[in-house]
Amino acid sequence: MQIKLTFKKISLSFAAILILFCVYFLYPPAYPEITFPDGKKFAFTIVDDTDNAILENIKPVYEFLDELGLRTTKTVWVLPSNDTSQWANRGACLCDSAYTAYILDLQSRGFEIALHGARGGDSKRGEIIPAFEKYKETFGAYPNIHINHAVNTDNLYWGEDKFSFYPFKLLYRWMFSNKKYYGHVPGSEYFWGDLVRDYVTYVVNFSFYDINLLKINPSFPYFNPDKPYVNYWFHSSEGADVYRMNELLTKENVDRLEEEGGVCLVYTHLARDFYKDDSLNATFRKHMKYLASKEGWFVPASEILDYLRLHREGERTLSFREKTRLEIIWLYEKLIHGSS
């Protein structure tokens, strides 16, 4: 009897601790009302990962976005892939003159061009530096945004190094992958963190399933002193392919984004079935037309992030609680959905 009572007390104590932990770390933060330019009610853009992108599958999508008056962010590779056995590594790069000409045309129309690493596949520092300079030579400046690519060894703060809370590093290593990434490790042949620190403003980290990112963390973009080679981190809404994008951009979600005065930066791959069999996905077309009919601020990611930074008091460094909350939510969603 005494053993049962002791076990019950321990169970109740553990439950109480767990409840307090969840309340402390997961209670949603309040965020101040944001006034967007020109009286717009919310902010929305797309950050397009260049995996498998060629003119044939992305040009129709961008022409459609242009017609709607949306200006978004597109990543590029500078060098050709050195490992096309991986689907995600395939796609055009700046070595393709016709593709480069089109990307420059998009830039001239107000689309932002960001970097997705030097190439689809691993790159060492001796390859990354000239690729970085080639990007500047092509577009007139270094990229404002860098997005890590898949499992490139030269990624910065990737895999378990996404996390600041050490137990989550161990959990990620055990459940998902123990691959190491070295873009942020001085002395490594893959190191280029100094270039990112000196020339790149923003790097994306976690992607979430909520359309309004202010509800996840109103403090982005932010600096994380645990990861000093990145000036500002931002997070994104999950829309990895046309099917997830369509799940995200339902009428109900778009209406909520407007009502909440929110911010949405959708991370996606516009080469993943948005244009297929010579036509745009019908649901995507319908959702985007409805979105464009709203009073949204539709500009590239850097413009939104700059605005968020400039319209708050001081620079933002996340607290331990805020970092842990982001990491808990992301791990949970990865377990449930397999988010990136």
Return residue spans where pLDDT drops below 50 for at least 5 consecutive residues: 7-12
SSE succession: HEHEHEHEHHEHEHHEEEHEHH
Q: Classify the fold: give the CATH topology.
A: TIM Barrel
Percent helix, as a range, is 40-55%
Number of helices: 12
Distance between the termini: 49 Å
Mean of pLDDT: 92
Helix vs. strand class: alpha/beta
Per CATH, the class reads Alpha Beta
**What share of residues are in beta strands?**
5-15%
Describe the main β-sheet briefly: 8 strands, parallel
CATH architecture: Alpha-Beta Barrel
How many structural domains does the protein architecture include?
1
Silhouette: globular
Would you count the extended β strands for me? 10
Instruction: State Rg.
Output: 21 Å
What report would you give on this structure?
The structure is a single chain. This protein has 340 residues and is of the alpha/beta class. The protein has one domain (47-337): Alpha-Beta Barrel (TIM Barrel), CATH 3.20.20. The chain is 42% helix and 13% strand. The protein contains 12 helices and 10 strands. The chain has helices spanning 2-26, 55-68, 97-108, 125-139, 166-175, 193-199, 213-216, 242-248, 251-259, 282-292, 301-310, 320-337, and strands at 42-48, 73-76, 112-115, 145-146, 202-208, 232-238, 263-268, 275-276, 279-280, 296-297. The strands form 2 sheets. Strands 1, 2, 3, 4, 5, 6, 7 and 10 form an 8-stranded parallel sheet that branches. The chain has a two-stranded antiparallel ribbon with strand order 8-9. Strand 5 (202-208), helix 7 (213-216) and strand 6 form a beta-alpha-beta unit. The longest helix is centred in the first third of the chain and has 25 residues, at 2-26. It is globular. It starts with a helix and ends with a helix. Mean pLDDT is 92; it is low at 7-12.
